[in-house]
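Hi support team,

I submitted a single chain yesterday and got back a structure, but I'm not sure I'm reading the token output correctly. Could someone confirm the output below corresponds to the sequence I sent? I've pasted both exactly as they appear in my results page.

Thanks,
R.
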Amino acid sequence: MYPVIEWKGNRVYMIDQRLLPEEEKIIEHTTHTQVAGSIKDMVIRGAPAIGVAAAMGVALGVVNGCAESVPAFDRLIQEFARTRPTARNLFWALERMRDVFLSHRDNPGRLKKEMVRAALQIELEDVKINKKIGCHGEKLIRSGETILTHCNAGALATAGYGTALGVIRAAIEQKKTIQVIADETRPYLQGARLTVWELQKERIPVKLVTDNSVGFLMARRLIDRVIVGADRIARNGDTANKIGTYSIAVLAHFHHIPFYVAAPLSTIDFSIASGRDIIIEERGKEEIIQFRGDPIANPETEVMNPVFDITPYHLINAIITEKGVISSEFERNILALRE
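Hi R., thanks for writing in. Yes, this is the structure output for that exact sequence:
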């Protein structure tokens, strides 16, 4: 498995996902500010991977002596909190790292070791959790089916293995014959650049389609199921994911195609009642009017660029977590998972 993110020698290393699939470049980070910049600039992306990166970035800041008091540490935390406001795993990881800091702040020598240990534990847990998600989710897939996935919820979006693609990997490991359809996922093309690259690396059959062909393919019965990841899930099951997810869910509902969300419990925000409470990140116009510096629209064009949307719970057939599959009474069953 290629390294998505790695802690080595008090440095943080990430594969630069902006350059894939043309170039596989590893970036070295020596400061927490560099890590925060890579999260904001989408060197690394995907909610679980962002959480791991933030944990390592916070640990790096403490190791480098940038958080020798609670106010200084809170400023460090806020630097990460401002990077990607929709991703719940980011804030979950920051909360966890803050608890470790407060528990060991009176012992500076031990503090640094414990912060690094906590970050590495989050990374290790993420891979184990994703494999559990895959184990539960693959039971929903029959051999011979074609699965549509949107954006990238694979190893690149996590510490390894993946959530939505983890379900597909687990099905392949069970010797099921699976065909994957990846839509391109405008405007950042995570499906075209990342999901296809990932699956091709592992020789999992995949076909790339344009975003606006999904309805046609569903009408022709060429898609059996949809599996996506998530960036934040409200306690009623409303789910924030990459822009375009809601449209696919509506199409899947109309065509009676099961629509699944695969995500760890750390993606669930138990503090919010519904998707109306989820902050939707908006990014710059450059992602819409150009691609890698090449213009595709008039530079004066006004742009709206929300990068996530909300899929209401009633369009979701199941939420797949490391503790099992929820397929009804989402709010009651989601709250039960917290116990």
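A quick pointer for reading it: The longest strand covers residues 179-183. Let us know if anything else looks off.

Best,
Support desk
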